[in-house]
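Ticket opened by: R.M.
Priority: normal
Category: complex prediction / small molecule

The reporter submitted a protein together with adenosine-5'-triphosphate and asked that the result be attached to this ticket for the collaborator who will pick it up next week. Submitted input follows.
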Amino acid sequence: MSKLKIAIQKKGRLSEKSLALLRECGIKISNGTSKLKANAKNFPIEVLYLRDDDIPQYVEQQVADIGILGENEVIEKNKEVDVIENLGFAGCRLSLAIPKEIDYQGLEYFRGARIATSYPNILSNFFKTNNINAAIEEISGSVEIAPSIGLADAVCDIVSTGSTLFTNGLKEVETVITSQAVLVANPNLPAEKKAILDRLLFRIRAVQRASENKYILLNAPDNALEEIKSVLPGMKSPTILPLAQEGWSSLHSVVKEDEFWDVIDQLKTLGAQGILVVPIEKMVM
Ligand code: ATP
Ligand code: MG
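Result attached by the on-call engineer:
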């Protein structure tokens, strides 16, 4: 039987979470990341541990069938791969940063400047779109020190909190792209592998949906149930069970994590009591 080969980052910011996602999908990987390859015990998948930079090329060439990596690398490498799913972790942005004492007035600052980056393609597209002529210095790592050693006037680098920039005397002035981890696939997978990918995707979506939703239980007076039901529609409709105390019911439903506090406020106003909110492990529609 054929196996789906998935490339994930061997060592770095994406490794842990990529493995955790597979684990949450019920896929047991036999050995650690010390080897180049590992098999799953209970799912037709083989894991290849690679540098994230190499994943687009390997997926294009079908050395791997699918991969997990940052959108930033997908865009930079511009290979023939399909982005199948946003995975919601490793959120960051690719930004332009300049020495913090400079009074920044706008993109004009970059005209004729030297900018150090590991993302020359994304940056040159950005400058082209904005009609800026600048010299891009491609370097593969420690981009943030380039201005202090006199290699560049600015950097274009990955930022999440900005603290690395700050400690290197830089400030972020423009966002070039935003990024998160994504699942990519070779566009021409044979039907057998496509079927395995669909099974994997089904599980990934169940895991993601679960993390975006909470299970909610509450007690409410019967006369408030209609209104509470409209605030908490649930997956199909909420479960309502009578309480031992006359005139009261218990209501169970799901609530979206990001609407959670608004919903709680409304529920309290409607007379709900004893509200419990618990995490959901998997959510299959
Ligand atoms: P490799 O050795 O595999 O090439 P790397 O040094 O290129 O590793 P990491 O620093 O581990 O890569 O980052 C991998 C990806 O994680 C980046 O391409 C980006 O998508 C994301 N990332 C990088 N820095 C951050 C950050 N500070 N916060 C959130 N996500 C980040
Ligand atoms: Mg890399």
